[in-house]
């Protein structure tokens, strides 16, 4: 398939499916009239698919400020409860590759948790924007496996058999990786420029011109959460951190250890909050 | 003539009706008294009469009068753009449906309030009606008046379409925060430019103002380019045309309360809210001020 055609196919995606346990919890959340906007926001911000749906709506030309909003809490405030509830009612689930998607879902959530911790340490003004970028960095994987399910299974299989990274196997097959595919979708859905760039360059943060810090944190979080062994991004080994990121973030060994401890605490809390039995 | 007899018989109980045998004769009456609805006999009307009706509807003042056109049973039109009417009814259905169609037409035109084209929030006329009717009923309520600080330099630097984006965001923000605190009985309007207003119960108005300001300060930075976000300021020109550095926009809100002081007129309460807003503007950054002065009972 040529590149142009591939892009058209990916851009034709209107909505992405999530995993069943998210949908079950989602229905509980939106059917609860007492659920506050913060509760709904925290829940939405734990799932890449719900988050991308919310950002797509708030950045659509209908509301008149396309490409401006990259945080879920801000999006919910501007959309209002009724729009949010209505929009979330239409969410569907993956019917195939469920196991792989659950692993990816955990990987995305974990990356977001790590990114928030690092953003706070680096005193970034809106840490939520950083964690959202990390949450969405692999959205291209969801898109590719949705649109080209059989091909994507082959890619996963080839990657494992030949000890390749998934991105390499994707590139061999499609001539682009999930990073580009994710950026195409993000662009099509009018996401803010910085967010698009962070998704596009999460494997090559040194090429990010406008948001080098954001792209570097996303890159670093993606790798750190794999090293932690939380979730499954699809690769059987952990890629190296790009040297430019070590320079830019400039963490000491002691700080890295502190970050790992913080991750431990936060991951426990996130999962408890999301999936405790009521 | 038969048609006008039927219409008169059906409507006279609930409406006051004035009959004209042709549109030329009716115009002077319409210009002077602004009827609530026109029932137009499209069965016998000439092409010229339709043109005159369309011209009347083209006038922004008279365009809002709803028109119900009665048509022949075999009436067919390929392009409705040739008729500036709100609804139509076939002769054979007049006896059965006329009264309900008229009522529905009137309800529909009441629902269509005049809105600000940018934010789609109710505009000035709708706002003054809303305030005056609450004052006339003697309701206790708080009226807030909000405007942006340093909107002009932003507009000058980034251009008016970026400025419009900010206004649309503010409209949406104010509406959701107000409806969030008080879903029923609250009102939000866009006076024009960067001026907004909202009406709520006095018990929740300050909380809503707080919500608005807190979220405005968080969201507004994303409407600036990264280099301006980094310095928290922009370089633009002041009213005299001199280059100056301006802070990131803030929002100032003034609140007047119609409990202790019973306002009679719309202008009076707006005036107090506007004074409070000026007071709020004196401090740096986003803030709100409530009229806490004591008034002698009249």
Describe this structure in words.
The complex is a heterodimer of chains A (278) and B (298). The mean pLDDT of chain A is 91. With 278 residues, chain A is mostly helical. In chain B, the strands form 3 sheets. Chain B has a 5-stranded mixed sheet, sandwiched between helices. In chain B, strands 1-2-3 form a 3-stranded parallel sheet, covered by helices on one side. Chain B is elongated, with a radius of gyration of 25 Å. The model of chain B has no long low-confidence stretch (mean pLDDT 91). The interface between A and B is medium-sized, with 20 and 21 residues.
Write the layout of secondary structure elements.
The complex is a heterodimer of chains A (278) and B (298).
Chain A: H1 3-11, H2 20-31, H3 37-44, H4 48-58, H5 72-79, H6 81-89, H7 98-121, H8 127-136, H9 139-147, H10 149-161, H11 166-174, H12 178-188, H13 193-200, H14 212-228, H15 243-249, H16 253-275
Helix pairs in contact in A: 3-5, 4-5, 7-8, 7-14, 7-16, 8-13, 8-14, 9-10, 9-12, 10-11, 12-13, 13-14, 14-15
Chain B: H1 2-11, H2 23-33, E1 38-41, H3 47-58, E2 67-71, E3 87-90, H4 94-111, H5 124-137, E4 142-149, H6 151-158, H7 160-181, E5 187-192, E6 195-200, H8 202-220, H9 226-231, E7 233-237, E8 243-247, E9 250-257, H10 266-281, E10 287-290
Parallel strand pairs in B: 1-2, 2-3, 9-10
Antiparallel strand pairs in B: 4-6, 4-9, 5-6, 7-8
Helix pairs in contact in B: 1-4, 6-7, 7-8
Note the gap between the termini of chain A.
48 Å
Main β-sheet description of chain B: 5 strands, mixed
Q: How many separate helices of chain A?
A: 16
Taking all residues together, what is the mean pLDDT of chain B? 91
Number of strands of chain B: 10
Q: What would you say the CATH architecture of the largest domain in chain B is?
A: 2-Layer Sandwich
Broad CATH class of the largest domain in chain A:
Mainly Alpha
Judged by helices, strands and strand pairing, the structural class of chain A is mainly alpha
Helices and strands of chain A, in N-to-C order? Answer: HHHHHHHHHHHHHHHH
Query: What share of residues of chain A is helical?
Result: 55-70%
Give the count of structural domains of chain A: 2
Total domain count of chain B: 2
Q: Would you identify the regions of chain A where 5 or more consecutive residues have pLDDT less than 50?
A: none
Residue-averaged pLDDT of chain A, rounded?
91
CATH architecture of the largest domain in chain A: Orthogonal Bundle
Strand order of the largest sheet of chain B: 5-6-4-9-10
Beta-strand percent range of chain B: 15-25%
């Amino acid at each position: 398939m040529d590149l142009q055609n591939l892009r058209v196919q990916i851009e034709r995606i209107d909505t992405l499916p999530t995993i069943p346990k998210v949908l079950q919890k989602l229905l509980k959340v939106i059917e609860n009239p007492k659920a506050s906007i913060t509760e709904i926001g925290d829940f939405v911000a734990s799932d890449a698919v719900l988050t991308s749906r919310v950002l797509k709506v708030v950045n659509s030309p209908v509301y008149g400020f396309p490409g401006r909003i990259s945080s879920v809490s801000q999006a919910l405030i501007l959309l209002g409860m009724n729009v949010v509830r209505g929009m979330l009612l239409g969410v569907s689930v993956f019917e195939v590759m469920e196991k792989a998607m659950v692993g990816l879902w955990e990987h995305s959530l974990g990356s977001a948790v790590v990114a928030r911790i690092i953003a706070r340490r680096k005193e970034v003004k809106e840490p939520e924007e950083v964690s959202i970028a990390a949450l969405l960095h692999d959205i291209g994987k969801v898109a590719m496996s949705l649109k080209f399910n059989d091909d994507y299974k082959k890619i996963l299989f080839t990657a494992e058999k030949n000890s390749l990274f998934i991105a390499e196997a994707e590139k061999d097959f499609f001539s682009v990786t999930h990073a580009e595919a994710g950026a195409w979708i993000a662009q099509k859905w009018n996401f803010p420029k910085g967010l698009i760039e962070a998704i596009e360059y999460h494997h090559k943060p040194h090429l990010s011109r406008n948001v080098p810090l954001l792209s570097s944190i996303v890159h670093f979080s993606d790798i750190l959460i794999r090293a932690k062994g939380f979730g499954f991004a699809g690769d059987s080994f952990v890629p190296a951190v790009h040297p430019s990121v070590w320079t830019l973030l400039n963490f000491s060994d002691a700080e890295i250890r502190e970050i790992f401890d913080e991750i431990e605490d936060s991951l426990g809390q996130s999962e408890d909050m999301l999936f405790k039995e009521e | 003539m038969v048609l006008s007899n039927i219409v008169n018989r059906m409507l006279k109980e609930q409406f006051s009706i004035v009959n004209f045998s042709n549109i030329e004769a009716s115009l002077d009456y319409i210009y002077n008294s602004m009827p609530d609805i026109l029932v137009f006999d499209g069965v016998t009307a000439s092409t010229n009469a339709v043109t005159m009706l369309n011209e009347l509807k083209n006038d922004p003042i008279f365009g809002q009068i709803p028109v119900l056109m009665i048509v022949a049973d075999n009436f067919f039109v390929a392009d409705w753009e040739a008729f500036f009417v709100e609804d139509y009814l076939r002769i054979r259905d007049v006896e059965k449906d006329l009264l309900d169609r008229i009522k529905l037409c009137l309800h529909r035109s009441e629902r269509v309030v005049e809105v600000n084209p940018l934010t789609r929030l109710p505009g000035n006329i709708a706002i003054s009606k809303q305030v005056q009717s609450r004052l006339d009923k003697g309701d206790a309520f708080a009226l807030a008046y909000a405007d942006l600080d340093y909107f002009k330099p932003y507009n000058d630097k980034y251009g008016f379409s970026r400025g419009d984006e900010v206004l649309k965001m503010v409209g949406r923000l104010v509406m959701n925060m107000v409806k969030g605190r008080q879903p029923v009985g609250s009102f939000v309007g866009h006076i024009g430019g960067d001026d907004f207003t909202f009406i709520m119960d006095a018990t929740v108005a300050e909380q809503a103002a707080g919500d608005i300001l807190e979220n405005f300060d968080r969201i507004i930075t994303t409407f600036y380019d990264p280099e301006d976000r980094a310095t928290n300021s922009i370089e633009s020109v002041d009213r005299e045309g001199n280059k100056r550095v301006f802070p990131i926009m803030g929002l100032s809100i003034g609140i007047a309360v119609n409990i202790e002081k019973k306002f009679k007129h719309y202008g009076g309460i707006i005036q107090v809210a506007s004074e409070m807003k000026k007071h709020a503007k004196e401090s740096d950054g986003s803030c709100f001020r409530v009229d806490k002065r004591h008034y002698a009972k009249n």
